[in-house]
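ok here's the first one, seq then struct tokens
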Amino acid sequence: MNKTLGSTLIVAGTTIGGGMLAMPLTSAGIGFGFTVFLLIALWLLLSFAALLFVELYQNAEADAGIGTLAEKYYGTFGRVLATAVLLIFLYALVAAYVAGGSSLLSVLLPTIQDKQTTSRVAGVLFTLFFGSFIVLGTSSVDKANRILFFTKFLFFILVLFLLLPKVQVDNLFEMPIDNALIIAASPIFFTAFGFHGSIPSLNKYLDGNIGALRISILAGSLIPLIAYIIWQLATHGVLSQGAFLEILKQDPTLNGLITATSAITGSEYIGVAVRIFSALALITSFLGVALGLFECLEDLLKRVHLPTNRISLGILTFLPPMLFALFYPEGFILALGYAGQMFAFYAIVLPIAMVWKLRRQYPDLPYRVMGGKPMLVAVLIIGIGIVMVPFLVQAGYLPGVFSG
């Protein structure tokens, strides 16, 4: 029972992070009602996809990773593809968090030449300081993360305590300025439910107990859904759509969210509380994802028999995302959008492809996710659709999340 509870909290802790901060930024033009609809729909979609991994682990070793599962059904090609997608996904997430971290840190630094230079210096400092915990080892990450996560929870309660009394009911009934924004925002909301990369570790921790894994996934993902809805209630209720969009057009970063809450409520305390909560949520996400990327690179290099040390692995882990943040200092939303593409493949397309073969080869396994082949096809189409969204936005067929 303790392991099941612990696994549930790991799912919840992995999910609630930096993606939560992007939600008000991307849903400002959507309205609260449609935002809640999108959250519930994506939770159902990704819970279904996560349960497919439970089905797969009925016929796999408890410590089997995603690459091992993919190799079992699709050979070396499956392992290479799964590993490549996972790496791109993790790199995109780390890049998003470095970009977001530089945005938050830059306002605390004295101006160095100009705003862009200050942001770049902030990105380097953020990466060097918090990246050092990863290089030092998992133990240092664990100790730092416990303190940060507990503090983050306290500030989340404080932010809600300050914001909820200022909610204006009329703000909650505002309609989307463009219905297509619901589709355009889906990859970023999609990524905010991204705990699937931790499922192999959870299954190993639970000693292959798929019943406990199923409970952990459902309960652990429900906690973030509730937190996200309350968070959206607070931000959408406090900020009128027009004023929020105007501020975000001037500063479409995490600082824009903080500026908006401070300006609309007239309270400096709310701005400070949101800034601290935003920083803590982003840092805890950064530490967890960066550790996963570091270990993924370490396993990959060992498999191809290349010598490594923690310093060289640290450079491979952090240099590419840091360069992204230097050249795209406002790239938090952009990187999360492209991370959503990779995550859609990793969390939906890949498990559906493996389960399709599993059911053909082992039709009598006791646990099977409901819906049969029609549900697999429907979820696959939705996943591919989410992958295509950023390309459709770039091509002008869908509006950007800050358009209008």
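and now the second one, same deal
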Amino acid sequence: MVSVGYTLMCEQTGPKELVQQAIRAEEAGFDHLVISDHYYPWLASQGHSPYAWSVLGAVAHATSRIKLMSFVTCPIRRYHPAVVAQKAATIGVMSDGRFTLSLGAGENLNEHVVGAWPHVHQRHEMFEEALQIIRPLLDGDNLSYSGNHFEVPEAYLWDRPETPVPIAVAASGPHSVQLAAEYADAVVCDNPDAGVIQLYDEAGGAGKPRYGQVAVCYGPDADDCRKTVHEQWRWAALNWTVKSELPGPESFVGASETIRPEDIAQTVPCGPDLDAHVAAFQKYIDAGFTDVALVQVGVESQPMFLDWARDELLPRLREL
């Protein structure tokens, strides 16, 4: 059975409200929670961006069953990889082993706050070095590491869960798929790309979890939902090579100004049609994903969405 998740979207919600959403999502019956790890929102209209790791600590304390996951954390600029490992191990302890650390090469939007954004080839080198640091630390090793980009004279994690925190790596092509297969316990892909899943299987990932995320906008009025999606989610229509380089919310506003409500609504189901939301989820199942998180676009509609998911959506998704 596919694990059905709920997204704690830091870009559209404040920290206290995110904790309450997590509690309600567990009560509604979701299997896992994923949380975005940003410094900025994509668009200023989203209006928030609290520190995800503080929220994770509170959520770990306030919940008891639901699994937790960062989605995703970049360990190459804003955070040193040794510190990422410490944070992940601490959340692993606080959640009694419910946490998975999801890692990716990041984007300029969030990482430039501490310095210049490296060239893509340098980022890939830095990301692999970060994995070479984080993996052994989470496994309990006393690590000394000297690379081209990172130095760890000596590091050891004193507080770790009994079972090492699993790692998932975001992948979109052959290189990142190879990193996921070599260093991680799972793969993450932000669209239902069966080709990436096949590459992952061929690289040695067969039988391991595959995480995805599908955006929806549930509400009683489809037109209102389309307006909300256009206002807050139109950035998602941009190609990732563009999204990874843009430096701030104002850049995303400019890059997405030609995207119309009907354009983004082609990829995000909008309104009360249960079948449309189920069909969007089904694409990930058909592509071979094992764990798929729903992200409800629009902060005001979260309570209504959670009630609807409990009563109607989750029972349908369990049948797939």
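notes on #2: The longest strand covers residues 210-216. The chain has a mean pLDDT of 97.
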